[in-house]
From TrEMBL:
This is beta-glucosidase. Residues 677-746 form the Fibronectin type III-like domain. It holds the Pfam family Glyco_hydro_3. GO terms for biological process: glucan catabolic process. It is an enzyme of class 3 (hydrolase). Keywords: Glycosidase, Hydrolase, Signal. Belongs to the glycosyl hydrolase 3 family. It comes from Bacteroides stercorirosoris. It catalyses: Hydrolysis of terminal, non-reducing beta-D-glucosyl residues with release of beta-D-glucose. SUPFAM superfamilies: (Trans)glycosidases, Beta-D-glucan exohydrolase, C-terminal domain. Its EC number is 3.2.1.21.
């Protein structure tokens, strides 16, 4: 396709200010807005799935499925030809689920045939790289990134992802997901940055900045902070079920990452599937107007999640019909509707009936057009199909994916078997559902060419080429494992020098109904699915050292393995270079440094299990079953070296409310390997007018230390790190004693402590 068709006023109608790239964006928006019909305005507020998505669904789904399957729904009798016609008429503002540059350029060419030639903005779920579209770099998932505590890496991954997206003519990522994950049953944990509001906030902010840049260049994309709000703590652990949270919990735990994302410049936000305290988020005026617009001064636009405005009627039942649902959502603050054919007609009717002022429609369209102008889409609506692969999957990006994988894999247990000695373990049996599968790519990933992905088995062979690896394939599906293959692995384990079991969850979206983890794939327990525990136990019964590697998105309660195996590695979903990174860690080529960004419970019965709980949460221990402590705590992770913390010092022991405390601690690498230690600072308000958590992460640092090296690590505790909401929900710093804790994890035994007072 030709790449021209730039919209400029060169030699044209000089009164068409919106076509003049030298004019201020605000003037261009207002000029275009006054030229638009009501129908064109409402069309800008509607987003559709791409034509190839429609074709694929229409070919395999029945009429009833097309009507009722909200994960894939389209409409009987409404075909891709109708969408193409609407696009040519300027009645579609955005597309999602467009996965190739060819389709994106084609749909854009249709928009260029419209009366005003308003370009399409293409959105895609580029969660950890633009991985939903093949032949792009697949980075480790967000939970991996969070376990690295590496904010600079968050920025770098987002920046590289933006470049790969723009190379495919895609302009808008539905990321970062800044929900605070506090329920391990919920399938989307791996899409988040974990359970701590402070860590989630910092990673979310850097991701926003990485995606958007200045939001005015050909390598910038629009970030979307999501899902607003509370969907990560549903009452039964399932995606989209009701959430009931106090305003205090919202403001202390769930709001901070969103507010920070807004202040960092995020120009789009997605509301959550769920109802919040009885009101669907998609029609929640308090969220979208009072908090987002009036309190945080959000200037961007709000987009719905998939058909969730329709769910105000057909699920939540707070609107009697679809038209009323559209009315409620728009008047509450919604700007763009994600997918559906009834929006245009019904919203136009609502305006003509006088129920929705056209000025309200103009508010939303201004916000949407502003982004399209700022991203340069009017000047360059197409991407270069010939040059796209020069940017995607380039060496620089793959190197980043490998580094991120190395830094995000957590060593949970090691009784001395790791790192592996290649001269000692000549024959290694490898088995498990995730040993040789692209599932390491994680949720929000399409299948890749085999040569683009290094599986764990391939990584082992790469790093230890002289070792004999005996692979027993268990298939990819944990729910349908073959008992005969389990028995075969158990038998062959006895002939090996060492055994590796790669277990966990299945997350690949192209087998949607077979997954056990990911979006809309929630669990009633957190045990390993199928025969995986049996496999681990039978292999370990060989008497040979057995290592467990976990590939998953949610925390898994691997109690038996923790009690009986010498080593456990939590790999999460480490991306396309993950197999190499896992092998490098197993063989000591890389010293593990990651720390858990989320608590791992013993079992589902312990939920909610978080480190920053209130003082009374475990006042009474469980009468039977598991203890009131986690299997592995937040901030925990082992290394092949050892670190010593001492000489914790507070420069000030008493400060005013507007003062700050400088904190220092000496950290020494007492082992014989170089490493990186993630030093963590926690604070507790000892006595307060409202209850406060037993500890809260308030700072951290990734500290590289050579063997034998010591370094003094410094932090500053500023007033914002001491503030909380009082009885009247006013944010204050209260006088009194504060406990400072610095160390290697959130576990009390890993922390040095001192106190200071605010007067």
């Amino acid at each position: 396709m030709a790449i021209g068709a730039c919209l400029c006023s060169c030699g044209g109608d000089r009164t068409e200010v919106y076509k003049d790239p030298s004019a201020p964006v605000k003037d261009r928006v207002e000029d275009l807005l006054k030229r638009m019909t009501l129908e064109e305005k409402v069309g800008q507020m509607n987003q559709f799935v791409g034509v190839e998505h429609i074709k694929a669904n229409s070919a395999v789904m029945s009429e009833d499925e097309l009507k009722n399957n909200t994960a894939n729904a389209f409409y009987p009798g409404f075909t891709e030809k109708d969408i193409e016609k609407w696009t040519e008429e300027g009645l579609v503002g955005s597309f999602l689920h467009v996965l190739t540059i060819e389709e994106a350029n084609y749909l854009q060419s249709l928009a260029m045939k419209s009366r005003l030639q308003i370009p399409i903005i293409f959105g895609i779920d580029a969660i950890h790289g633009n991985a939903n579209a093949p032949d792009n770099t697949v980075y480790p998932t967000n939970i991996n990134l969070a376990c690295s505590f590496d904010t600079l890496m968050a920025y770098r991954i987002a920046r590289q992802t933006a470049k790969e997206m723009r190379a495919m003519n895609m302009h808008w990522t539905f990321n970062p997901n800044v929900e605070v994950a506090r329920d391990a049953r919920w399938g989307r944990v791996g899409e988040t940055y974990g359970e701590d509001p402070y860590l989630v906030t910092l990673l979310g902010v850097q991701s926003v900045k990485g995606y958007q840049g200045d939001l005015n260049g050909s390598e910038d994309v629009l970030a979307c902070i999501k899902h607003f709000v509370g969907g990560s703590e549903p009452i039964n652990g399932t995606n989209g079920s009701p959430t009931d949270l106090s305003e205090r919990t919202l403001r202390e735990v769930f709001f901070p990452p969103f507010e920070a994302g807004v202040k960092a410049g995020a120009m789009s936000l997605m509301t959550a599937h769920n109802e919040l305290n009885g009101i669907p988020c998609h029609s929640n005026e308090w969220l979208m107007q009072d908090i987002l617009r009036d309190e945080w001064n959000f200037p961007g636009f709000v987009v719905s999640d998939w058909m969730d405005i329709e769910h105000i009627h057909d699920l939540h039942a707070t609107a009697e019909n679809l038209k009323e649902a559209f009315y409620q959502s728009i008047m509450a603050g919604m700007d763009m509707h994600m997918h559906g054919i009834h929006w245009n007609e019904m919203v136009v009717e609502l305006v003509k009936e006088g129920r929705i002022p056209e000025s309200r429609i103009d508010e939303s369209v201004r916000r949407i057009l502003d982004i399209k102008f700022r991203l340069g889409l009017f000047e360059q609506p197409y991407a270069d199909e010939a040059g796209t692969m020069k940017i995607r999957l380039c060496d620089e990006h793959r190197a980043t994916a490998l580094e991120a994988a190395r830094n995000g894999i957590v060593l949970l247990k090691n009784d001395g078997v790791l790192p592996l000695d290649a001269s000692k373990y000549k024959k290694i049996m490898v088995t498990g559902i995730n040993a040789d599968d692209q599932n390491i790519l994680g949720d929000w990933s399409a299948p890749e060419k085999d040569e683009n992905v290094t599986t764990i088995l391939e990584g082992l062979k790469m790093i230890a080429p002289d070792t004999q690896f005996d692979f027993v394939d268990q298939g990819w599906d944990p729910r349908n494992m073959d008992p005969k293959k389990v028995a075969e692995a158990a038998a062959r384990a006895r002939t090996a020098d060492l055994n590796i079991v790669v277990a966990g969850e299945y997350m690949m979206r192209f087998r949607w109904n077979d997954r056990t983890d990911g979006e809309d794939t929630d669990r009633s327990d957190i045990d390993l699915v199928g025969l995986q525990n049996e496999l681990i136990e039978k292999v370990a019964a060989s008497g040979k050292p057995t290592i467990l590697i976990l590939v998953n998105g949610r925390p898994l309660g691997v109690q038996w393995a923790a009690d009986n195996l010498p080593a456990i590695v939590e790999a999460w979903a480490p991306g396309m270079c993950g197999g190499q990174a896992v092998a490098e860690i197993l063989y000591g080529k890389v010293n593990p440094s990651a720390k858990l960004a989320i608590t791992i419970p013993h079992s589902v019965g312990q939920l909610q299990m978080i480190y920053n709980h209130k003082p009374s949460q475990y006042f009474h221990p469980y009468a039977a079953g598991k203890p009131s402590t986690p299997l592995y705590p937040f901030g925990y992770g082992l290394s092949y070296t050892t670190y010593k913390y001492d000489d914790l010092q507070l420069a000030q022991k008493e400060i005013n409310k507007d003062g700050m405390v400088d904190v220092s601690v000496k950290v020494t690498n007492t082992g014989d390997r170089d490493g990186v230690e993630i030093v963590q600072l926690y604070i507790r308000d000892r006595f307060s007018s409202v209850t406060r958590p037993v500890k809260e992460l308030k700072d951290f640092a990734r500290v590289p230390l050579k063997a034998g090296e010591s370094r003094v690590v410094k932090f500053s505790i500023t007033p914002d790190k001491l503030a909380f909401y009082d009885k009247k929900m006013k944010k204050i710093v209260e006088p009194g004693e504060f406990i400072v804790m610095v160390g290697a994890s959130s576990d009390d035994k890993d922390l040095l402590k001192d106190t200071f007072c605010v007067k």
